[in-house]
Design goal:
Elements lengths: L6 H22 L7 H13 L3 E4 L6 H11 E2 L2 E5 L6 H5 E7 L5 E7 L6 E5 L6 H13 L1 E4 L2 E4 L5 E6 L12 H4 L4 E4 L8 H9 L10 E2 H12 L5 H12 L10 H6 E3 L3 H17 L7 H6 L1 H5 L4 E2 L1 H5 L4 H11 L6
Parallel strand pairs: 1-9, 1-10, 2-11, 3-6, 6-9
Antiparallel strand pairs: 4-5, 7-8, 12-13
Length: 336
């Protein structure tokens, strides 16, 4: 899509994207009650080619959301329930001895659950660092390495991980460098009071909502191509850069709160994430180029896991979201 050279093609591509997004969202909405911002974030990650971390207490439907998305899109879906005793081979795959047709035996590689298109990594912080690293290789390199064997993973490839922020016993929190590989970190909150009845009706009644596939792997790849082709004006690109630099202590663009309360700010991946999310938001808003408001709408999901609050900030109760709020207020958007 190139809006500057062919507005008609740009309009058609944007309409195609919105139609795909609406179909999937409607299908997911048959099962998931409310949580509109969470559903949009998960869909944005899938359509932009990124990975997403869902954080929330148990019972909020994080696993159900990703499973439902896997049913709504006709792609290979797998779920990994992480435990502290899980080894890399359990998720990558391993060579097993099988009996051949002639009665002999041979070693045959059996693929693990990482070899899929959409991988649900449940309670990722329960896995040991060695197993986490195997997952993160797949996320970053789109491949897995087992011995001398390297397996390229088919596109589209997307990892959606969940973690419980409350229960810390027996967990291995992801290091900052590994968290940085997630496009989004989405906080899943409690439902609204008015949504509880619909949740109970759908989960305790006689009728179970049925989800059908309304999209496919090739269509998701096509949507990613449309997202990548959305143009970004130079002023908007500079806004993304300034927002990211403003999270870094010592930067001339940073507000006072960052210097006082932040140990580490966002890496360049934060700017990449803002641009990609902004492209999706622009398409959904009917724009054919990214506006500054498209970036800023995604700033919390993109930046909250890339900002590390120092000891002073923690003692004062400063949160990453508060830092992002301060940055958004301090860095003024470009004039239209």
């Amino acid at each position: 899509m190139n809006s500057s050279s062919d507005p008609h093609m740009a309009r058609e591509a944007a309409e195609e994207f919105r139609a795909c997004h609406a179909r999937i969202r409607e299908e997911v909405g048959k099962v998931i009650v409310g949580q509109g911002a969470v559903i949009d974030a998960v869909l944005t990650a899938l359509l932009a080619g990124g990975h997403v971390m869902l954080e929330g207490v148990p019972g909020l439907g994080k696993t159900m959301l990703v499973r439902t998305l896997g049913e709504a899109v006709d792609i290979d879906f797998s779920r990994i329930q992480f435990t502290p005793d899980m080894m890399p081979a359990d998720i990558q795959g391993t060579s097993v001895l099988v009996e051949g047709e002639g009665g002999g035996h041979e070693l045959r590689f059996q693929e693990g659950p990482l070899v899929a298109n959409l991988v649900l990594a449940d309670e990722i912080n329960r896995a040991t660092p060695k197993t986490q690293s195997a997952l993160l290789e797949a996320m970053q390199e789109r491949q897995i390495s087992v011995g001398r064997r390297t397996i390229r993973l088919d596109e589209p490839y997307c990892v959606m991980a969940t973690q419980n922020p409350v229960e810390q016993e027996g967990t291995y929190p992801l290091p900052e460098a590994q968290l940085d590989r997630f496009l989004f970190k989405v906080i899943v909150g409690y439902p609204e009071v008015g949504e509880y009845k619909a949740i109970l009706d759908r989960t305790t009644g006689a009728e179970v909502p049925e989800v059908t596939a309304v999209s496919s792997g090739p269509e998701i790849i096509r949507m990613r191509e449309i997202v990548r082709s959305v143009p970004v004006p130079e002023a908007v690109q500079m806004d993304a850069i300034h927002l990211v630099v403003a999270t870094q202590p010592g930067s001339e663009h940073a507000p006072a709160m960052v210097g006082e309360s932040v140990a580490l700010g966002s890496s360049p991946r934060g700017a990449q994430g803002l641009i990609l999310a902004g492209k999706v938001n622009a398409l959904l808003a009917g724009r054919y180029a990214v506006a500054s408001e498209d970036l800023r709408a995604a700033a919390h999901d993109v930046l909250r896991h890339r900002v590390i609050v120092n000891f002073h900030g923690q003692s004062e109760g400063v949160t990453p979201d508060a830092i992002v709020d301060a940055v958004l207020s301090h860095v003024k958007p470009p004039a239209k």
